Amino acid sequence: MKVTDAIEILFIAVIVYYVMVWFKKTRAWTLFKGILILLIFMGISAIFGFNTLLWIFRNTIREGIIAVIIIFQPEFRRALEQLGRKKFISSLFTGDNAEQGRRIDKKVLNDITKAAYAMSEVKTGALIVIEQEVRLGDYERTGIAIDAVVSSQLLINIFEHNTPLHDGAVLIRNDRVVSATCYLPLSDNLDINKAYGTRHRAALGISEVSDSITVIVSEETGAVSLACNGELYRDLSREDFVDKIERLGKNEPFARKIKMWKGRGKREK
After folding, report:
1. Is residue 265 pLDDT above 50, yes or no?
2. Which residues contact 215 (CB under 8 A, 6 or more apart)?
3. Which of 168, 173, 213, 246 is the most buried (most CB within 10 A)?
4. What whole-number distance in Å separates Cα of residue 128 and Cα of residue 133?
5. How far apart are CA 262 and CA 241, in angstroms?
6. Angle, CA of 227, 229 and 232, to the nearest 5°
7. Over the chain, what is the mean pLDDT?
8. How far is CA 227 from CA 6, 106, 187, 238, 244, in A?
């Protein structure tokens, strides 16, 4: 076997593995099992010479593929969005730089932390989305424009019970609260714990379609959690909360990426 053959087999195996994992986490998994059953019936039909069944299968497969694409368009779109957000391509141009920049300002992080744990103490529910590289304009437009500097007092006031803006999510871009009462997509991941409420499902949903970091304060327990990249980090202490956001929010400055892409940057030690 040639080296290129081994690389090709490995590459195909990785692709098949990730496709299977993606299927498992969506409602397409049920469809996938149905397709496997149909393939088994096709094999049996071919073995025993059931020509009528084989004719039906052959003449419906094209229409079936088109129907699958239409029905599961949201899942295919989400998969392509996740592929586009992968870091392995951009890392080829950025290098391993120990002095990476932070997308989340220290003051903004302090204000978010202060507000989250102040609301946690009195069990005030909250949903705060911190935008990163992927713009969230579509979700911003579902809410009410704020355009105010981030502060703990503002966040607490927004989520106060019986206030006009407490329902929905707050969207933060850089150091500003840009919108409140935003609607977020609910996750349709079949593996999500059934005990999770709407806030946690919405936080996971937005994390599946963007690289945002979402802060959740539970109205029932007061627990503070984070959602990012389709993962939920539950009931974090203040120290773990800050540490997790700092690690999730670290990213090389965009300007440096452009510089290295053009071949003018050098790796810093």
Report:
1. no
2. 112, 116, 126, 127, 128, 129, 130, 224, 225, 226
3. 213
4. 16
5. 37
6. 30
7. 80
8. 38, 19, 11, 15, 10
The answer to whether the pTM exceeds 0.85 is no
* Domains of the chain, earliest start first: 3-84 (no CATH), 87-98+252-269 (no CATH), 106-251 (3.40.1700.10)
pLDDT digits (tens, 9 = 90+) for 252-263: 333 333 333 334
Residue-wise over 180-198: b if at least 16 C-beta within 10 A, else e? Answer: bbbebbbbbeeebeeebee
Tokens of 196: 């999770």
Helices 238-249, 106-121: crossing angle, 10 deg rounding: 140
Alpha carbons 166 and 158: distance in angstroms, whole number: 5
- pLDDT, residue 78, reads 65
Task: Measure the CA–CA gap between 185 and 204, rounded to whole angstroms.
Answer: 9
Q: How far apart are CA 61 and CA 183, in angstroms?
A: 38
